[in-house]
Write a structure and sequence with these properties.
alpha/beta; Rossmann fold; UDP-galactose 4-epimerase, domain 1; 2 domains; 7-stranded parallel sheet; two-stranded parallel ribbon; 12 helices; globular
Length: 319
């Protein structure tokens, strides 16, 4: 990646969130100083120096217009989001409606001001849930077909489609199961990687770790540093035709992840299954062929190394 190809100022919408804060820190460490981290709130346990913070609600059209007016690059990572309990529970409708409103305001502002580059954070939840269980999901053939995963997936599908067809340089990535330091680690906003890692640490006292479902659900896990590197390749090189998947390549079951986490924290807790809780689709894997064809291969952090780093970080923030 050549960050000289990234027009400044760089505005990170959702800059107080998991991926946004890690992106901001990476750009800062690579000497990008004209940064603006935009969010409705910022957590002290995430990287977000006060000098770069802009507390703005993107649901307000004037607010979106204000922060985007002079931007060179806009990373639209802002979203009301959470884990499987969040989007397969009572929060999905209102959260997805707000997300759609934010994306509309951001797109209108970028088009109005002819923003040189817009990069949108989509999700593999945009794909057809039936396809998720039956094969590897490919961008051109799948992201606009079938039934997406919850209203969150429907919003991400629409946002992706509007961004890649915008009358400006609009790019979109479809993230798949990104995890690592800076991820939400409390409440229903937790995704599985954070939930299982925190449960493993707590099992040292509770003697058990409860999985949602029987643990046979399979995902491809992508460590946050790998995700940021690949996001920046999409952002700094030639504009791709349509969205690009960004995910891992090796399917691993939830039970395997839980077993590793218990072993890493040296816990002899028992694994239990709660089949009454939501689990999402049984299997999910995305094709990484388009990314590889466009940008070449990459070194992928093994889940054992990634979860070890994640757990070590969690030990510093959990109370």
């Amino acid at each position: 990646m050549d960050l000289n190809n990234l027009p400044e100022p760089v505005v990170i919408l959702g800059g107080g969130g998991f991926i946004g804060s890690n992106l901001g820190e990476t750009l800062f460490n690579h000497a990008v100083r004209d940064l603006r981290l935009v969010d409705v709130q910022f957590q002290d346990w995430r990287w977000s120096p006060e000098h770069y913070r802009y507390t703005i609600d993107l649901r307000e059209p004037k607010a979106a217009d204000y922060i985007i007016e002079k931007a060179g690059t806009v990373f639209h990572l802002a979203a009301d989001m959470g884990g499987v309990e969040y989007f397969h529970g009572p929060y999905d409708y209102a959260a997805s409606l707000d997300n759609q409103l934010m994306t509309t305001n951001v797109l209108k502002a970028c088009i109005k001001h002819n923003t040189p580059r817009l990069i949108y954070s989509g999700s593999v939840c945009a794909y057809d849930t039936t396809s998720m269980n039956s094969g590897i999901m490919q961008e051109e053939s799948g992201y606009m077909k079938g039934d997406p995963d919850a209203m969150y997936g429907a919003d991400k599908r629409n946002g992706t489609h509007f961004v890649v067809n915008a009358p400006i340089d609009g790019r979109a990535v479809l993230f798949d199961t990104v995890y690592g330091p800076g991820q939400e680690h409390e409440g229903v906003r937790m995704k599985f990687p954070a939930a299982v890692a925190t449960k493993a640490l707590k099992s040292l006292n509770t003697g058990q770790l409860i999985l949602f479902g029987d643990g046979s659900q399979k995902r491809c896990y992508l460590y946050i540093d790998d995700a940021i590197t690949r996001l920046l390749n999409v952002a700094t090189r030639d504009r791709p035709d349509g969205p690009v998947n960004i995910g891992g390549t090796n399917l691993v079951s939830c039970r395997e992840i839980a077993e590793f986490c218990l072993d890493y924290v040296e816990s002899d807790a028992i694994l239990l299954a709660d089949i009454s809780m939501p689990t999402g689709v049984k299997t999910r894997k995305t094709s990484q062929a388009k990314y590889t064809n466009l940008y070449g291969g990459w070194q992928e952090t093994a889940y054992q190394e990634g979860f070890a780093l994640f757990i070590d970080w969690l030990k510093t923030v959990l109370v």
